[in-house]
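Could you join me in thinking about how sequence relates to backbone shape in a protein? To get us started, please write out a protein record for me. Would you write everything just below, so we can both look at the same thing?
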Amino acid sequence: MKRILVIDDLPENVFLLQDRLEHAGFLVITAYDGKSGIEKAIKELPDLILLDVMMPDITGIEVCKTLVSNEATQGIPIILVTAKSDAEDTKEGLEAGAFDYIKKPFNRVELLARVHSALKVSDANKLLLDAEKKNTFVATVVTANHKIKQPLTLLSLSSAALKRELSKEVISKEAILNRINYIDIAIKEINDVLNQLNAIKDPVLSNYTQDIKMIKVENNEGT
């Protein structure tokens, strides 16, 4: 069941919206001023917010700006509800980050149409975000596998060479030191790759094969 937060300082407006939304199958959370509205939005993380513009403590525009700038609530669609009809007011609300605007008095059909539209867009955005996260995870695994495979092979060969050298009756110190040097090089390469992956803040994907992506970890990619 989708949850909708209604923020309005007039109880009669809250009751009207709550009644219509609950009859349409939504769970309604209520707040009667801007401050408590912000607090409930952060705490409850509703699927949608219906926000009155004209409120005495904090205006709906300011509440909208606060929620849009908060990482926890910036993805929640906000529909501003107002009695104003001026185009500049509508422009101000949309520029503040609102998804849509509905003017009072509104009918049930228009209200539900705008609510369903906002929720559909929000759901689509969430699916895209989830897909992006999965693609980035897969690309990270592919990148780590591609970058670490060569130094791991070097470690394996060096280990085998050390075992052969140690099994000889006469052990060459120089041969052992050479293999240890290869091991140090491999360890450094693996550590560099892990540090590069850890330092990535905004992953950039590049083609690895036709259907597989990998993360670009350096500016002058050699492979």
User: Anything to note?
Assistant: The mean pLDDT is 85. The two ends are 49 Å apart (CA to CA). Residues 151 and 189 are 7 Å apart (CA to CA).
